[in-house]
Amino acid sequence: MARQVKLSFYTVEECGYYKRGQDAPFMADFPSVSRDLHQWISTPDITVRETQTFSPDADSEDLPVFCYSLIHDGAPNDYVMTTWNETETTEGQVASVHADEAAGSARVEGVEVTQGTIAGYPAYFWLIPNQNLIASVRLEGQRLTGHTGFDLYMKGYLERFSKWVVLPANVQKATDVNVLGYKHNRQTRTDLRPRFRSVPVRLQGRLDYIRTNRQRIRKMLRKDEYEGGRVQHDSLVAKLLKGFGLRHSAPSLDKTRYRFEINYTPSEAELNEIINEYTSGRANTDVTRWDDIGFKFEKDNQIHWLSSASAKGEAEVNIRLRDGVVIEADSLLTALHAQRSSLLRMAADQRDE
User: Fold this and answer.
1) Chain centroid, CA 182 distance in Å
2) Residue ranges of E strands in the chain
3) For residues 275, 276, 282 and 283, what is the CA-based torsion angle, rounded to 10 degrees?
4) Among 153, 150, 88, 97, which residue's Cα sits nearest to residue 119?
């Protein structure tokens, strides 16, 4: 079945066990960790529930993540990993609201989660260890990449489940186990800390193009999605609403989208500050088309959005679905390999013409 998918590429910036203050891992790397994770997931009779690697803090908005499957192809040594991301339930039920009924009185229904199942959604990742890359893969219409959960999952694996973990005698690996240290050359090291972090691949050529043409910038644009309760958004939206002539305090809004532009040519220092703030502030998030900064140049109607400097793209792939819901991992890996060279060019640096 031919399906359209969206890919977003990330560089694995940290993976392994680090000494304090060191930028390079003392031991392990993305290829060796991928091999070890695959071996663990391939353990006979391991259940999906047993693949959980971290327990979210009680006050955290994060939810548990599991590994649905992880398959490997020795040539060219890539993997496809499917994570299962748990979703919020209330007393064992998933809630849905009648969207076409009046706000404040619309009926809400709860669908009971079958005992022994985990309500959630799948997320797909193409692991390319030899290039220190991963790519999230989304079906058309699927909004969530699961990228944050993937990073948490990998860090949790390094902390408590990898082959390097040292535990007290007769203690089984678990998300709440107290680790004694990490094994290196048959010695237990207590001075190492596990790290995993992946960040969006930035197409430096496109950022350089904006910087090179800074003096031609005539307009700067900003768009975002307002979330009620965020102080900086509350203040900004209040000022924008007063601009429409509202003399009294602005009404409270739960959520809305906004976009504005100003005639402004930033200095070199200001432009660098804007780009650095945007890229670093979104290092572990997924940039959407409603969270962006753009620039219009003199005699150029095109808007140069900073999000376009993230390595991403679309492709048509032949895949199979299990139970009409989850992509069969082997079909996805085969499809990715068939277009591997062209897909990886999405993560290569390019310059705007």
Assistant:
1) 28
2) 2-19, 65-73, 78-86, 93-97, 108-112, 120-128, 133-139, 165-166, 181-184, 187-189, 192-200, 217-227, 255-263, 292-297, 303-305, 312-318, 321-322, 326-327
3) 130
4) 88
* DSSP-H helix ranges across the chain: 30-41, 147-160, 204-212, 231-242, 268-281, 329-338, 340-344
User: Between vectors from CA 262 to CA 261 and to CA 266, what angle results, nearest 5°?
Assistant: 120
Measured CA to CA in angstroms, residue 349 lies from 41, 214, 311, 341 at distances of 34, 20, 8, 14
Mean pLDDT by groups of 10 residues along the chain of 353 residues: 91 96 96 98 96 90 95 92 93 87 88 91 96 94 91 97 96 94 96 94 80 93 68 64 70 69 93 83 48 89 81 89 93 95 80 36
Task: Give the pLDDT score at 233.
Answer: 57
In the three-class reduction of DSSP (H, G, I as helix; E, B as strand; rest coil), residue 308 is classed as helix
- Maximum distance among all alpha carbons in the chain? 72
- Among 190, 266, 164, 283, smallest CA distance to 222 is for 266
Every domain of the chain and the residues it spans:
2-86+119-201+312-347, 204-309
In angstroms, rounded to a whole number, what is the distance separating the alpha carbons of residues 82 and 98?
31
User: Does residue 66 contact residue 42 with C-beta atoms inside 8 Å?
Assistant: no
Whole-angstrom distance, CA of residue 316 vs CA of residue 338: 11
Which residues on adjacent β-strands are paired with residue 255?
227
What are the tokens at 131? 């290039």
Q: What is the pLDDT of residue 163?
A: 97
